[in-house]
Amino acid sequence: MFGKRLTIFTIFGFRVRADASWLIIAVLVTWSLAAGIFPQEYRDLSVVSFWLMGVCGALGLFLSVVVHEFFHSLVARRLGLPMDGITLFVFGGVAEMSGEPETPRVEFLMAAAGPASSIVLGALFYAVYSAGMRAGWPLQIEGVLSYLASINWVLAVFNLLPAFPLDGGRILRAALWRWKKNLPQATHRAATIGTGFGLLMIVAGVVNLLFGNIIGGLWLFLIGMFLRRAAESSYQQLVVRTALEGTPVEQIMKRDPMTVPPSLTIARLVEDYIYKFHFKMFPVASDGRLEGCVSTRQVRGVPRKEWERKTVGDVAVGLSARNSVPPDYDALMALGLMSRTGNSRLAVVEEGKLLGVVSNKDLIRHIAFKMDLGGEEEGEEE
């Protein structure tokens, strides 16, 4: 889901990071406030005031989203669910879990914590706004506080929509999970509802744009697109996790894999192996002894004019935790390792002996077979 992320700060052991997409939303929120919302409410202020209020409102929204996700993370940690941190991205943020909740109760409590925190935060902003009105604070401050009170309540209501992966959708999933005793099926139904909500918001956005409500229509359209995509990807992630988690790679790997000798030239490696078999990585072995591996990444680092002179042994890299795993390594963790390192194949090694090779295609094929054999249990009516 995420692209490049920048760590902003760490609080109580949680890393708060911003996805590159957050820059887009920060600019869009500031523009919406400065050019649309505040000028409609406070007509006598200057353009500079509107833009300063827009920046302050965007920063306040940023802090509100952090608080919302922080309470998710605190409750999850308290209930024993490992949390990797908080990432802000386009249209909000997410508390990153390294696994699924173990029970419907854990899912419900973790999901409910976010909207509850937004309601409380909105009440606090409103209390400060009311105190400021009585004290005669500048209109610009009152305007920002009023916006932050209302936007937190809007966030709470929006997140309570029964559309997965919003908090309301997670609460719905918890209820369906408790009723059906089947997490994949509950996720499938909640995600389907989430997709439906997303489509409705897209249609509403288009209608608003056609009737001239550009800012409101743009927000509805973009949020609908995000919600639809997030619902679909959340279900797909659960399917992948369910299919792979707990399965050792030795059950999926290809045994007796093809190896190449270190004396092979780069030219012959490319012509006789890479172009022929379309593998991006080959283990390197000599006289039955595993010496490392060579991939297209190493080949790209060699000028083409040197392919006839350079050998595999000259460019091969040693086996490490980035390109090899033991046979009992969890298949889901292997998929995560491939994603982090960009390696599409991993050597499966035990005590220096090559047992096999597992590729992302092998993992995808395993997921497909699992879905084919267990589709009724995971996604359809019982």
Describe this structure in words.
The chain is of the alpha+beta class. It folds into 2 domains: 240 residues, no CATH class; 119 residues, CBS-domain. Helices cover 60% and strands 15% of the residues. The chain contains 12 helices and 10 strands. The strands form 3 sheets. A 4-stranded mixed β-sheet has the order 1-2-3-4. Strands 5-10-9-8 form a 4-stranded mixed β-sheet. A two-stranded antiparallel ribbon has the order 6-7. Helix 2 runs parallel beside helix 4, helix 3 packs antiparallel against helix 4 and helix 3 packs antiparallel against helix 5. The longest helix has 32 residues. The radius of gyration is 26 Å and the shape is elongated. The C terminus is likely disordered.
Order of secondary-structure elements? EEHHEEHHHHHEHEEHHEHEEH
Alpha-carbon distance between the termini? Answer: 31 Å
Main-sheet strand order equals 1-2-3-4
Briefly note the structural class of the backbone. Answer: alpha+beta
SSE arrangement:
Layout: E1 5-11, E2 14-19, H1 21-41, H2 47-78, E3 83-89, E4 92-97, H3 104-135, H4 139-159, H5 167-180, H6 183-210, H7 214-244, E5 254-255, H8 266-277, E6 281-286, E7 289-295, H9 296-300, H10 312-315, E8 324-325, H11 331-341, E9 345-350, E10 353-359, H12 360-379
Parallel strand pairs: 2-3, 8-9
Antiparallel strand pairs: 1-2, 3-4, 5-10, 6-7, 9-10
Helix pairs in contact: 1-2, 2-3, 2-4, 3-4, 3-5, 5-6, 6-7, 7-12
